Amino acid sequence: MTNKKDSEAAFLAAYDPSQWPGVSLAVDVVVLGVVSGKLCVSLVKRTEMPQEGFFALPGGFVRGAESLEEAVARVMAEKAGAENVYAEQMYTFADAGRDPRTRVVSVAYLALLRGGLESPDVVLGQVKATWAGEEGGGVSVEVGGAAVELAFDHADIVGLALKRLRGKLRYTPVAYELLGEEFTLRQLQEVHEAILGRPVDKNSFRRSSLASADLVPMGRLEEDVPWRPAELYTYAERE
Amino acid sequence: MTNKKDSEAAFLAAYDPSQWPGVSLAVDVVVLGVVSGKLCVSLVKRTEMPQEGFFALPGGFVRGAESLEEAVARVMAEKAGAENVYAEQMYTFADAGRDPRTRVVSVAYLALLRGGLESPDVVLGQVKATWAGEEGGGVSVEVGGAAVELAFDHADIVGLALKRLRGKLRYTPVAYELLGEEFTLRQLQEVHEAILGRPVDKNSFRRSSLASADLVPMGRLEEDVPWRPAELYTYAERE
DNA sequence: TTAATAGTGTCTCTGAGACACTATGTG
DNA sequence: CACATAGTGTCTCAGAGACACTATTAA
A211: which nucleotide lies closest, measuring CA to C1'? Predict the structure, then answer.
């Protein structure tokens, strides 16, 4: 091993943080919601030079002593006053060359919000996967019925979010984040169908949902529907 | 919405990267391997002040225009001359306060290496999960039969790697990364058992392995074993 | 021949898709 | 009553655990 001395020196050198040029830290948030049976993502229109005019994911730089989660919460609050949103880290993009001055490290988060997020700054785009199951890949997004192109690689990031969400749907109770405190099994099924992008058998869905035992019947029925009202359920282990 | 002007201003301000203090970018690598049926992780002994003397994950700062993957590859090469290693991003830790001078953003990677990684700088620690299935949580690590405490939150990061690996084992051909080009079904099963931490039924394992159709029989048998030799297989879609 | 492992046959259980059915609310 | 949806019964099939069995090789 002739490179032992070299690697030793490199190792020690690498542990001096001030030697390396600093980078900027940012978060981008994929906010997903189900609106009338459609999976939607929140988008902002870029008002500055790189990719100006394109739709992009909401995001921002991480401030001072803020944690990543705090930065995500702040971005959500600033853009639409949304508080206490489920958010989960997905992937970190750190390729050099995004910004000519400093390297920008961007941590992508997946957030789920009941009914989607919409505000003066934020529009909802409908997500259409070009792939089935959990293959993964980019997605196409429509705003007001017309296909739009997302800035940077944000279409791939939305695709990553959708892939992650489909995976989590199987073995974690994540769909409840997209519903209110009380919901019917049909509403829960609609959320699943919107995320999976395919119809789901009613009976199979009921069986597996009720068997998982984190659904609690409220003993009350939904109201103001022009057909037979269904039992209301809630999720047992919200914390 | 009285906060519209505020959020607008914050939005614009946030897009000036030079305004925010820079951070240092580092990678930590969980190198896992299976050595004689045991799941092992590569560790280095810290030689500098914070947590000096504790075992820690190998890692280092990202240099100049290096990508994260290049930094991981460099760390692997420096520590043990390992090239072309499977590596996958896991999670990014960015809590302030790790280093008093600058904020250190550390991106944790999972790497898989045949036979584990060992060198003058690196020791192998045996990983023992204190949890079953895919619950997740920290792990305990033994070096030379004695339990050791890992530096920082590295025990949790190893636990995260194990959880991720167990999950991927179900639906991706990741176990092949821990074997040579040619292997018997028993060797493949041993890798699975080491990762899952439990015995696996031989017949079920064979059936599902052969059904997945990315195993190709070589038409040759293993040699130099003091019992009936088994068919050698290789993985079909290495790229 | 014996020992040890390679490799197979088959029963069972479970979870999910398919689909027809009954029940019960609104109008 | 009609109608639309809530909710159920049941057949089937695929995948996996359990386990006993046969096959083949080294010594």
Answer: C15
